[in-house]
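To: structure desk
From: M.T.
Subject: fold request, one chain
Message: Could you run this one when you get a chance? Sequence is below, nothing fancy, just the single chain.
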Amino acid sequence: AATQELGLRTIAATTYEMICGACQQMHPEESYREVQRGLRQRIRRCEECAAAGRQLVLMTKGRTRSEGDDCPICSLPLPLDSEESTFQACCMTKLCDGCILAAEEAGMYDCPFCRTPTANARESIRMAQKRADAGDPTAIYFMGTQYDCGLMGLEKDVARAVKLYKRAAELGVKEAHFNLGCLYFEGVELPKDTGKAIQHYEVAAMQGHVGSRFNLGCMDCLAGNYDIALQHWMIAANLGLGTALDKIKDMFESDLATEANYMEALRGNQSAIEEMASPDRDEARSSG
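Reply: Done. Structure tokens follow.
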């Protein structure tokens, strides 16, 4: 803080500093235009970065899905629809329904990945808890989901689920950040805290979580940050999310996005959908 001497009195003139979401540097408040000062850290840009057209770090990370989002059998990106893949508690992996169907058609009804015999709910929880106790991040997250929803014979315990989610999030599980974001945003099981919800969504989005990216777009759109919302939805659409493409179309029809924006998102969305497709997955989907 700078000081100014006024006669015999000395007062402190506080200089506020803010972090730029593009260069990640601390700058005095006057280094930002007034409209930028009111934005949260990850979406504000200092005047120098704005003039240079530097992208926000929030928008440069998470533009592709991670290898962890691939089915470990066919190596294709898992479908975004959670109904089209199945989590295997025996090996803590998620398999696409296409690979599961192909295994069943070949006469294999054990886990197609680790070959563990199909277990009942009680045994699945026992295996998952053992892995969680050993510090497996995915198992910790999985146990959180079971307590969150009261599944597999466990009594619903949201407080315990939140603790598990927070631990899994600390260990890098992006889905745990997403679930925490949802809990804080909805404000039903936890006190509503939009700031915490955004923080968790942002971390997950930068790790490639598509649902978090979409939700950020919705929140920024509601806040009137239309250019930021468009960027979020462009990324989500290019990762294969159809609802994000619908939002961009709505923005185009409302003159908040250009035709070029929409066409780019349409091409990216179609490409991502094709990348996730396979004959086995098509068969699994049609068979219900």
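Reply (cont.): The radius of gyration is 23 Å. Let me know if you need anything else for the meeting.
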